[in-house]
Design a protein that fits this description.
heterodimer; A: 496 residues; alpha/beta; Aldehyde Dehydrogenase, Chain A, domain 1; Aldehyde Dehydrogenase, Chain A, domain 2; seven-stranded mixed β-sheet; five-stranded parallel β-sheet; 14 helices; 23 strands; globular; B: 585 residues; 3 domains; 17 helices; Succ_semiAld_DH (chain A); oxidoreductase (chain A); EC 1.2.1.16 (chain A); succinate-semialdehyde dehydrogenase (NAD+) activity (chain A); succinate-semialdehyde dehydrogenase (NADP+) activity (chain A)
């Protein structure tokens, strides 16, 4: 057993008891017949955490078959049973929270405090869906024909769901989608990102332990996401695809899914505006921006990408932010005092560098940070504050996905709204003002699916999460989360 | 306390009192049962129009119940006294303003009730007069039904329910929609009559007619959306459906302040739900109700589905509606005291109740408010219907930092009012509904002035216009110990209280047993949420003085009653939920 395995209470949850970590298909530990594997690296050290079985398209087909077979009986479980299963799964996450937190930090790099928040949120999702499972209501509509017939609309699970999840929230994205699918009565095939498969392996194992029947929860670990993803989006047995990731990949998935007319939910990239009006206390606004911008190294789709600060408080705001940012402790996420971990990869660092270079060449100033940290081994980047940003810079139209706060100066509401909406995507947006009129106006006009009004939190189990424009469609969690995995059936019932 | 030599102001016989509430010594009182009991000490008695009493020396010795002894007095002193001639003159005057007198059942006197699809007069031949508060003249007489006739109406409604409950929702929707169209076609006549019987300015009346009609249109849509739920059951072989069904016969008791809207808001929902009903409009404003029944008849409401009874006595007919076992639901808008009485009476047969009762609305202006907007909203909110609406601001709390400028803004606006006869051109505010109403307003004003408030304008009866006119009044320096802080004034008195902190004003605003509407003006989003959530009311206007909208659930908390009208909640008040559990193999 490797030395990494020894830091866990239950190393077998992640498959560390085997030379190559197996995955879960049809309720069993599953290793690809091809005997291929891929290695997963710790972004803080750029060293291998371990090896994971590398599934082929043939294996994926088997997983889909398993899910399809399991659906025949799982769809007939009662809502109460599913609710209990979800509650038990949530309890098991709670019991194994320490291990899960460590693994999220290991494979993603985020500090343990952030990983803790992520796992807690994951548990919150499962508890929420446990409650939602017993609240799947349909309608009875009156009929225009006779009094002795009812028009019933009932909701039923859509079928096998394919879940394709990203590396930035290895635990939360699986539970946000998987919890909804299972509450609805769907079976699923989950394909986690190649960089972060371990958390998903553990979650599936815990789902089995919670009592979900075999074949209900299947996991595909693979280094070839495009081929295996294509299998998921084109296999006729799959009726629903839920994807979180980039807009470009989302478009491909949608195009592939069209051949079998799958129902799709897409949570794609954002380019969140963060607008601070001068009547809002600067300290509070800086605190909020800091909390969300540097959360999980800024690799969050609801992270503010463009920070619009009113000209009257711009200097004050940028100075205070820079001060705060300079004090951030960067390091290995496993160290409890770390506030900012590494990025996921070298490509992540390159993208920030590109964004900073572009901005500086067009007149922006670096107030804090600005450089890659090379002496720590992994993919570290200094937390950075840029001022003097304008709409011609790449940052204005592309998501940075890193610890870079780009500050734009604005003059009036109309102008900032025009800028804020001048992007193809629309996931989250933030507005900070005490003025009711401005707040309501901006919240209404922002072309996004989620608005944080005087708060940076837009992602919790009670909220329906999702974007508009090219940030995708469909909602997760909240009152609409389970609906995404259900179909409505109208029954016109006449009593004879 | 003031005392008064009663012999000079009250004569034996039918009394038209022009003063209210003073302490009198009462030796004995005779009750409707015929029982006479001695009393002692000073009694606060109220005399209203149509009260009957006899006086001996300086003392009232009998205070008869006006209903049971009315006929005696009529026999003794003639049916109409000298007032009949005057009212005939008045008749010709206003009749010329109305195009379709048939709409108010005025082809022949008296106007009748609508029961079982027929227009019927009381078998006793009794009538009561409806007075125009603007000129204090009789508009016309209306048939005065006996309780037995109301009982009959309930039975007819019950029979009609057996078929109407099976009507298709599409029919109901079409019916409501036709009724809506007819209201709009007759809007001018409806508004004119409303101003005549209620006194409110013609523009207020026109506004109400549209507002009232909108409920019919809304509930036409709601009829098609009586949705139930389907649930999965705990047992795998069971399925659960919930269906909604009409509750049955509904008793609807409405006030005079919105003679049309209070009827359509209730009746629209009841008809859409598939209920049949007996409506008892206020005796002050029966003509609007008669016209609505006429239009419902023209729209094709099946006979017996909508019954409208007119009576002078609210109490006896109210008792019948709230105790008759055939009535399954009572919806009432009116005072809290009467609401409690009706709730108590309804308890014997456990009727489902909706009560929209009195309010004592706080109107809070914080220091960061847009004062111009707040003042405009206050004027609209406080003086609508001359202050006689249950959502009218009653206590205006203004932050001490903006108190003086805000008072100035309010004063400027109030001084532009034109008080006068509602049908006259350019009149913004009409008379109050009755002398009784005027007396209460005067009492509140006097109390406030005695306790240190100052009237910037108004403060007295506009006797040059008539006994029911009260000058729009702005009181500054209002305090919590004043009557106006504790009771709803229901009149054109704008009492401005000063406050300095949010905690203080919230405490003051909530220190009342009722809670219907509340208003707050501020630009601070956090404060708006804090205060709106903390106000113990059913409706909050944030930076607006209007909370009435067909689309918004209307109703109060605490002693302002329960139940919601309008919005998608409105119809559910008239529906029962039935759950069907179905077992499958």
């Amino acid at each position: 057993m490797s030395s990494i395995a020894s830091i866990f209470h239950r190393p077998e949850l992640f498959g560390f008891d085997q030379p190559v970590a197996p995955t879960t298909v049809h309720g069993n530990r599953f290793t690809s017949n091809s005997n291929k594997w891929f290695s997963v690296d710790n972004p803080a050290t750029a060293q291998e955490i371990g090896k994971v079985t590398d599934l082929t398209v043939e294996d994926t087909k088997k997983a889909v078959d398993a899910a399809s077979n399991a659906f025949k009986s799982f769809k007939n479980t009662t809502h109460v049973q599913r609710s209990e299963l979800l509650s038990r799964w949530a309890s098991l996450l709670e019991e194994n929270k320490e291990d899960l937190i460590k693994m999220v930090t290991l494979e993603n790099g985020k500090p343990v405090s952030h990983a803790d928040m992520e796992v807690s949120t994951s548990i919150g999702y499962l508890k929420w869906y446990a409650g939602e499972a017993v609240r799947i209501y349909g309608d009875v509509a009156p009929s225009s024909l006779q009094m002795n017939n009812f028009i019933l609309s009932v909701k039923q699970p859509i079928g096998v769901a394919g879940l394709i999840t990203p590396w930035n929230f290895p635990s939360a994205m699986i539970t946000r989608k998987g919890g909804a699918a299972l509450a609805a009565g769907c079976t699923l095939v989950a394909m986690p990102a190649t960089r972060t498969p371990y958390t998903c392996i553990a979650l599936a194992k815990l789902a089995l332990e919670a009592g979900f029947p075999e074949g209900v929860f299947n996991v595909i670990t693979t280094s070839n996401v495009s081929e295996n993803g294509k299998e998921l989006t084109t296999n006729p047995l799959i009726r629903k695809i839920s994807f979180t990731g980039s807009t470009d990949v989302g478009k491909i998935i949608m195009s592939q899914s069209s051949s079998t007319v799958k129902k799709i939910s897409m949570e794609l990239g954002g380019n969140a505006p963060f607008i601070v009006f001068p009547d809002f206390p600067v300290d509070q606004a800086v605190e909020s921006l800091y909390n969300i911008k540097f959360f999980s190294a800024g690799e969050v789709c609801v992270c503010p990408n463009r920070v619009y600060v009113h000209k009257d408080i711009y200097e004050d705001f940028s100075k205070k932010l820079a001060e705060k940012v300079k004090s951030i402790k960067v390091g290995n996420g496993l160290d409890p005092s770390t506030a900012l971990g590494p990025l996921i990869s070298k490509e992540g660092c390159d993208k920030i560098t590109k964004h900073i270079d572009d901005s500086v060449s067009k007149g922006a100033k670096v107030l804090a940070g600005g450089k890659r940290i090379t002496d720590k081994g992994g993919y570290f980047f200094e937390p950075t504050v840029l001022t003097g940003m304008d709409q011609n810079m790449v940052v204005a139209c592309e998501e940075t996905f890193g610890p870079l706060a780009s500050l734009f100066k604005f003059d009036n509401t109309d102008q900032v709204l025009e800028w804020a909406n001048d992007t193809e995507v629309g996931l989250a947006g933030y507005v900070f003002t005490k003025n009711l009129t401005t707040l309501v106006h901006v919240a209404k006009e922002l072309e996004v699916g989620l608005v944080g009004a005087n708060i940076e939190l837009v992602d919790e189990p009670f909220m329906s999460f999702g974007g508009i424009k090219q940030s995708g469609f469909g909602k997760e969690a909240g009152r609409h989360g389970v609906e995404e995995f259900m179909v409505i059936k109208e029954i016109n019932l006449k009593a004879l | 306390m003031r005392t008064k030599d009663l012999t000079k102001s009250i004569q034996v016989g039918r009394v038209f009192i022009n003063s209210t509430r003073w302490p009198v010594q009462v030796k004995e009182r005779t009750f409707t049962t015929g029982k006479t009991e001695p009393t002692c000490g000073i009694h606060q008695l109220s005399f209203f129009k149509r009260d009957y009493c006899s006086v001996e020396g300086n003392h009232i010795i009998r205070n008869y119940n006006k209903i049971t002894n009315k006929q005696d007095w009529k026999n003794k002193f003639g049916k109409y006294g000298g007032r009949r001639e005057m009212s005939k003159m008045a008749n010709q005057e206003w009749m010329s303003k109305i195009q379709d007198t048939e709409l108010f059942d005025l082809k022949e006197q008296p106007a009748r009730s609508f029961i079982g699809g027929k227009w019927v007069a009381a078998s006793s031949g009794k009538v009561f007069d409806v007075e125009d508060p603007g000129h204090n003249r009789v508009i016309a007489s209306v048939t005065d039904l006996a309780v037995e006739e109301t009982r009959e109406a309930i039975e007819i409604a019950h029979r009609a329910f057996q078929s109407y409950r099976h009507s298709s929702v599409r029919e109901r929707a079409a019916l409501l929609r036709r009724w809506y169209d007819l209201m709009l076609e007759n809007a001018d006549d409806l508004a004119t009559m409303m101003t005549l019987e209620n006194g409110k300015s013609l523009s207020d009346s026109k506004g109400e007619v549209i507002y009232a009609a909108n409920f019919l249109d809304w509930f036409a849509g709601e009829a098609l959306r009586i949705n139930g739920d389907s649930h999965m059951a705990s047992a795998p072989n069971n399925r659960i459906l919930t269906v909604k069904q009409p509750v049955g016969v509904v008793g609807i008791i409405t006030p005079w302040n919105f003679p049309a809207a209070m009827i359509t808001r209730k009746v629209g929902a009841a008809l859409a739900a598939g209920c049949t009903m007996v409506i008892r409009p206020a005796a002050e404003t029966p003509f609007s109700a008669i016209a609505l029944a006429k239009l419902a008849e023209r729209a094709g409401v099946p006979a017996g589905v909508l019954n409208m009874i007119t009576s002078d006595s609210a109490a006896e007919h109210g008792l019948e509606l709230t105790t008759n076992p055939l009535v399954r639901k009572v919806s009432f808008t009116g005072s809290t005291n009467v609401g409690k009485l009706l709730a108590n009476q309804s308890s014997s047969t456990l009727k489902k109740l909706s009560l929209e009762l009195g309010g004592n609305a706080p109107f809070i202006v914080f220091e960061d408010a847009d004062l111009q907007k707040a003042a405009d909203a206050l004027i609209a909110c406080k003086f609508r219907g001359s202050g006689q609406t249950c959502v009218c601001a009653n206590r205006i709390f203004v932050h001490s930092n903006v108190y003086t400028p805000f008072v100035q803004l309010v004063y400027d606006r109030v001084s532009q009012f034109r008080l006068g006869y509602g049908l006259d051109e350019g009149i913004t505010h009409g008379p109050l509904v009755s002398r009784k109403a005027v007396h209460k307003v005067q009492e509140h004003v006097n109390d406030a002035l005695n306790k240190g408030a100052t009237a910037l304008t108004g403060g007295s009866v506009a006797s040059e216009l008539g006994p029911c006119y009260f000058h729009p009044t702005v009181l500054v320096g209002a305090k919590q110990n004043m009557l106006i802080a504790q009771e709803e004034t229901f009149g054109p008195v704008c009492a401005l209280f000063e406050f300095s902190t949010e905690e203080e004003v919230l405490k003051l605003a909530n220190s009342t047993p009722v809670g219907l509407a509340g208003y707050l003006f501020s630009k601070d989003i956090s404060r708006i949420f804090r205060v709106a959530e903390a106000l113990e009311v059913g409706m909050v206007g944030c930076n607006t003085g209007v909370v009435s909208d067909v689309l918004s659930p209307f109703g109060g908390v605490k002693e302002s009653g329960y139940g919601r009208e309008g919005s998608h909640h409105g119809i559910s008040e008239y529906l029962d939920i039935k759950s069907l559990t179905i077992s499958i193999d």
